[in-house]
Design goal:
Ferritin; single chain; binds hydroxy diiron-OXO moiety; mainly alpha
Length: 161
């Protein structure tokens, strides 16, 4: 049986993954309107992945005898100061998600819920990859300057893991 605390934190994670998806959609839409179609494409793909993460939590909860709750989502910001600032926001958000995944893992460990400890490892690994790939984009942005932004926008999809 799924411990109550783990169920609660998985439901919290459903909201956070769903919000991540909407946040990246909002960023994608903003970038697309600025003519950054490559960056928008990267963000749209990321938004799809986050929706997939939300679905994983929904299905896992229901499979384990819990109840997955579909929440309301707050509206993500509609404007961003620039591409650099936006990707800094992405990294900050992913670090927040990593901490949130760690909360689920630690609760599962405390409750001796080995099934969840085992299942959540996929997310632990995924977060390392996601933070890493956003960090690479930020490094490239700091090298690129205004001129190089064109090339980053053109090539960004090749940086997807
Ligand atoms: Fe990028 O976060 Fe989902 O897990």
């Amino acid at each position: 049986m799924l411990p109550k605390k783990v169920e609660e934190l998985c439901n919290r994670q459903i909201e956070r993954e769903g919000y991540s998806s909407n946040l990246y959609l909002a960023m994608a839409s903003w970038a697309e309107n600025k003519g950054m179609t490559g960056i928008a494409g990267w963000l749209y793909a990321q938004a799809d992945e986050e929706r997939g993460h939300m679905l994983k939590f929904i299905k896992y909860l229901n499979e384990r005898g819990g109840s997955a709750l579909i929440p309301e989502f707050k509206q993500p910001p509609v404007k961003y100061k620039g591409i650099d600032e936006m990707f800094k926001e992405v990294l900050k958000h992913e670090q927040y998600i990593t901490a949130s995944i760690t909360d689920v893992l630690e609760a599962a460990m405390a409750e001796k819920d080995h099934a969840t400890v085992n299942w959540i490892q996929w997310f632990v690994k995924e977060q390392v990859e996601e933070e890493g790939s956003v960090q690479i984009i930020l490094d490239k942005l700091s090298l690129a300057g205004e001129h190089g932004l064109y090339f980053l926008d053109r090539d960004i999809m090749s940086l997807r893991g």
